[in-house]
Design a protein that fits this description.
The complex is a heterodimer.
Chain A: E1 2-13, E2 16-27, E3 31-35, H1 42-49, E4 57-62, E5 65-66, H2 71-76, E6 78-82, H3 93-103, H4 110-119, H5 135-147, E7 153-157, H6 165-180, E8 184-189, H7 192-198, E9 201-206, E10 209-215, H8 216-219, E11 225-231, H9 234-243, E12 251-252, E13 258-262, H10 267-276, E14 281-287, H11 289-299, H12 303-308
Chain B: H1 2-14, H2 18-47, H3 59-62, H4 65-88, H5 93-98, H6 100-105, H7 111-145, E1 150-156, E2 159-165, H8 171-198, H9 203-221, H10 225-230, H11 265-292
Antiparallel strand pairs in B: 1-2
The chains are: A alpha/beta, B mainly alpha.
């Protein structure tokens, strides 16, 4: 069932077309990733989904209602974090959560607020002012604010911005938990690695246009893995690979090391051959080709041509 | 709406800057009371320079609680707009600056409700500040200086006047004057809210509000016929001190004051209409603009 249906959505800011005629559908239970470089139109699109920005043209339907007409009911079932969770710094965590819970239209009790604070690990700091919190603690409180009313749809715009690795991992785990409970999550990021770890479907935007939309599993074709290898003698290893009929066609141009575009299953054979050539392998790093695909798409003037090279 | 208003008032009550205005009022009133207790005579002598010697004045009784309140209000009600601007100018822009505006707008609350609640909260703050002024300037002065008939020094046309109001005819005038001042200061709050809609930090709208008040006050005090006829009648600052009208008591042909009377009630009523019209127009503009604004903060 389609939870969000966006048709021919555009937004123009004083002569700049920030979002250009994009359409997409998010189904119930999806973790839907928005991917694109800075300025691609991700945040503008997400803000339009939350009625923060008014579209120049196009339509947005959420929960089978036109957003412009059913805003109140739609937002009752939606939680959001836009970039960073900015809260009232001069108020306590308890007060912040209490205020936003009341704004969400739910009846609150002290037990409910404390329960939600305990869940995000802030129970013991409930009376501390937010200005004394670290960025990670603010992020956790922001999550509690977004989820206090148990929404069906959660919209997260660049939720990992400014977080340390632990904070990023916490956000990832939260999204995975939400997915398990059947919630629909829309998440944007310019970090492909974040999207591919949590999303089942994704859209790539570039300069306001939709480049491609599809299942992440389809995009992450294991046959297209990029393998980066570091050896004891990279020059010799490159020479040997280049002269090998099995691997020479897979070798990529890379000034920083040796990279091959190959199926993951072929990696053991390559390591064995390198050993036979007297080169020891120090490290192997697999990189999904989606990253290269993303870069090629967003750098390419002819996106259709780039897409043709990929079976989606 | 009530839920939103209670949240707004709670937030205002928790902000330290809210109390700056109350501390400022307390300090200024305290300084006035101390100065008049110590040397009120000098002030009275200055005021009476143009009064004929034949005027019989009981000086200790002239400096009383009612008189003190009048003097304080005369000074404070010109400065209070700055204190109102501190709260109203911050109403929307402060939330935009903190980033809480976008979070608030992702909740099922209409933008019109938000503007109206911000405005009502600013009005409540204004009334609270005036009540505090009433407590400090009127009731504390009555305790310190006592209650007697009140003298009003006034320049009308080319002549100086002294009006004497009986002590049992004053309190209702103060109630009415504070009510009028609340309406006049609400215009300042409405200007602050409107400017706040455009900005993403508080400083701009606060300074802009104060600048508008200063510029309009200067224009209101320029005595040029073309401005008198065409500009002043439409400027809110021309009516900011209209509260004094409640102390301009009507007199008989032989100069006796008429208890319970007002010299010019139609002028006061007209001033109130114009101030209320300002408020309606400014708040309507705020609602209109905020409903169409893209939240990019």
């Amino acid at each position: 069932m389609a939870l969000i249906e966006v048709s021919n959505l555009s937004k123009q800011f004083k002569g700049v077309l920030a979002v250009d005629d994009i359409s997409f559908t998010v189904n119930e239970g999806d973790v839907y990733g928005f991917l694109g470089q800075n300025g691609a139109g991700k945040s503008t699109t997400m803000r339009m989904l939350l009625t923060l920005i008014k579209p120049t043209s196009g339509s947005i339907r959420i929960f089978s209602k036109e957003l412009s007409e059913g805003r109140h009911k739609i937002l009752q079932q939606t939680g959001a974090i836009i970039e960073k969770p900015d809260l009232y710094k001069y108020l306590s965590a308890y007060d912040n959560l209490s205020i936003f819970a009341r704004l969400s239209g739910i009846s609150i009790t002290k037990n409910l607020i404390m329960d939600r604070l305990n869940r995000v690990g802030l129970g013991e700091r409930s009376n501390s002012k937010v200005k004394t919190f670290s960025q990670g603690m603010k992020q956790r409180l922001g999550i509690a604010v977004a989820l206090i009313h148990d929404p069906r749809l959660i919209i997260l715009d660049e939720p990992s911005n400014g977080l340390d690795p632990q904070g990023i991992a916490d956000i990832r785990n939260l999204i995975l938990q939400l997915r398990e409970t059947g919630k629909t999550v829309v998440i944007s990021s310019h970090l492909l690695s974040e999207i591919e770890l949590v999303a089942n479907r994704m859209i790539i935007l570039h300069k306001g246009k939709k480049i491609v939309e599809g299942n992440v599993t389809d995009l992450l074709d294991p046959a297209e893995t990029i393998v980066q290898i570091e050896t004891t003698d990279n020059i010799l290893a490159r020479e040997k690979i280049n002269s090998s009929p099995d691997f020479s066609t897979k070798l990529q141009n890379d000034n920083n090391g040796i990279r091959l575009k190959m199926n993951k299953n072929e990696v053991p054979a390559l390591v064995h051959r390198l050993s036979e050539w007297g080169v020891d392998v120090i490290a192997i790093q697999p990189r999904h080709s989606l990253e290269d695909y993303f870069i090629s798409l967003t750098n390419s003037e002819n996106h259709d041509e780039a897409i043709k090279h990929r079976a989606l | 709406m009530m839920k939103l208003l209670s949240i707004e008032l709670y937030k205002i009550s928790k902000r330290p800057r809210t109390y700056i205005a109350f501390i400022a009022v307390t300090a200024i009133v305290g300084i006035f009371q101390f100065a008049f207790k110590a040397d009120g005579q000098s002030y009275m002598n200055l005021m009476l320079q143009s009064v004929p010697d034949s005027f019989d004045l009981d000086m200790p009784k002239a400096i009383n609680g009612y008189f003190m309140c009048y003097i304080i209000l005369n000074t404070l009600l010109i400065q209070v707009p700055i204190l109102i601007a501190l709260i109203a100018g911050d109403a929307i822009s402060g939330e935009a600056n903190m980033g809480t505006l976008r979070l608030m707008l992702t909740k099922p609350v209409s933008r019109t409700e938000i503007i109206l609640v911000k405005f009502i909260a600013s009005v409540i703050f204004t009334i609270m500040l005036l009540l505090w002024m009433a407590v400090m300037a009127l009731f504390v002065s009555l305790i310190i200086f006592g209650a007697e008939d009140m003298l009003i020094f006034r320049v009308k046309g080319d002549e100086s006047q002294i009006l004497q109001i009986a002590s049992d005819d004053i309190l209702w005038r103060y109630l009415a004057a504070f009510g009028y001042a609340a309406v006049a200061l609400t215009v300042i709050a409405a200007i602050g809210i409107l400017l706040s809609v455009f900005a993403e930090n508080s400083i701009g709208p606060i300074i802009a509000t104060v600048c508008i008040v200063i510029v309009c006050t200067i224009i209101s005090n320029i005595n040029v016929p073309v401005i008198d006829e065409n500009v002043k009648p439409w400027l809110f600052t021309s009516y900011l001190v209209g509260w004094k009208g409640f102390f301009y008591i009507a007199t008989t042909a032989d100069g006796e004051t008429i208890k319970g009377s007002l010299e010019n009630w139609p002028a006061i009523r007209n001033s109130l209409f114009i101030l209320i019209a300002h408020i309606i127009i400014l708040v309507s503009m705020s609602v209109f603009i905020f409903n169409r604004k893209d939240i990019l903060s």
